[in-house]
Amino acid sequence: MIIRLATSGGPSSGISRPAITTRRVPFKDALAVYQDLMQEGAKDIGVVLEYESAESVVRESAECGARSAELSRPAARQIHPESEIRDQHLTTPVQRLDVIGAGNFARTMLLPHLKNEIPFGTIVNRTALSANHVRDKFGFETAATDSAEIFKGTEPAAVLIATRHHLHAPLVKRALADHRHIFVEKPLCLSRQELTEIDAARAKSRGSVMVGFNRRFAPASADLKEILASVPGPKTASFRVMPGKLDPQHWYGNFAESGGRVLGEACHFLDFFCFLFDARPLRVLAQTTWPVTGRLPFPDSATAQIEFADGSCAQLVYSAEGDASFPKEVLTVYGAGVVAEIINFQELVVHSGRKRKSFSCSSKGHAEEISAWARFLRGQAAHPLPYEKSRLSMLLTFAVLDSIQKSRAVELEA
Predict the structure, then answer these.
(1) pLDDT tens, residue by residue, 193-205
(2) Over residues 378-385, mean pLDDT
(3) Terminal CA-to-CA distance of the chain, rounded, Å?
(4) Percent of the chain with pLDDT strictly greater than 90
(5) Edge to edge, what strands does the sheet with 157-161 contain?
(6) What is the pLDDT of residues 295-332, one digit of tens each?
(7) Using the 8-state DSSP alphabet, how is residue 187 labeled?
(8) Which terminus of the chain, N or C, has fewer Cβ atoms within 10 Å?
(9) Residue 267 · residue 393 · CB < 8 Å
(10) What is the layout of strands, in order, in the sheet containing 301-308?
């Protein structure tokens, strides 16, 4: 500081900075330099402390983060050699789609988007009345009440599974044994044991599995990813979700069928963090609150803190309490001078450079998700959501449940 003032007057000041500079050292070594100068016989006249450039600081921080992540990252799971092959373009397009499950969600959120994408084959539902109604409404060839009916044909057909949760894993395994390309609504399964069994079935199958994590396909999600691609370094994200109280008479209130709301619904938002950071989750600390009122036999609210391999961190607040006037789903992301927020997947707000920009959106990604899968079935595009990514999101969900049960942080298994 003294040198800067003394030399600021130009040549007439009589002091030349180069003339009195005996060495230059990084600013991080300043303490050692001062200690040297205090020693008797010190020969330095002027020492220049050099600050690192912003670019080098960012680069070194990223390198340190990468090294730290590498040291703490669990061993990678051995992926089946055909995993990448089966998720590329299909050489033989699928000719027909069979559907298992004709409930309200399938009728309103899935089938309307598929109607003009691929020919419908058989619709299966446990009640003949609903199966026949959907057959007539959407133009299926046949209707049945037994899923075994769809595995009798020889023509290559894809399978969409939209049943209650406890049937997902058994049907996925059966369809994989028949080498089908599968779309299954979330969650993929209800236990690690079921996930292991699906892994084994998939290793022997030429089929593929896509899980209905639709929010990663929403227009707001695509726009947010594009914005964050230019934002360096780790990010911090919070997702506040208020689904409202669950009627104990709803089938979600049957734990054996639904797996509970954390597994059955909150997995959506845990998957979104994996999509957002595109990094492996490492550790989870979660806790839950029990319902304030009602007769649910299990908690329907949870909070989870998640650490990712790239240094990012995320927090999920999934609460059945609150008021309906508040937005149901609010995501906020912070990173390198940028704050972005998605509100109910209807609005994307970005704060950067002291400016606020708002973008309107209109979809939670169901139509985009189905369209992407249909292009894959027609051989026009690679698989839109490879199995390994959905598998990782399920492992994260199981880790959240483990942390709640054990009342401590847990690390994800490989």
Answers:
(1) 999 999 999 999 9
(2) 96
(3) 53
(4) 67
(5) 142-144, 120-124, 96-100, 157-161, 181-184, 208-211
(6) 566 678 999 999 999 999 999 999 988 888 999 999 99
(7) P
(8) N
(9) yes
(10) 355-360, 347-352, 338-343, 329-335, 236-241, 313-318, 301-308, 281-289, 410-411
CA distance 384 to 118: 17
**Token digits of residue 71:** 């040291």
As annotated, the residues of the chain forming the CATH 3.30.360.10 domain(s) are 215-411
In the chain, CATH 3.40.50.720 sits at 94-211
Which of 152, 173, 154, 163 lies closest to 124 in space, CA to CA?
163
Pick the CATH number of 215-411 from 3.30.360.10, 1.10.10.10, 3.40.50.300, 1.20.120.80: 3.30.360.10
Query: How far, in Å, CA of 303 to CA of 315, rounded?
Result: 7
Kindly calculate the radius of gyration of the chain based on its CA atoms and give it in whole angstroms: 28
Task: Give this prediction's pTM.
Answer: 0.79
The one-letter amino acid at 172:
V
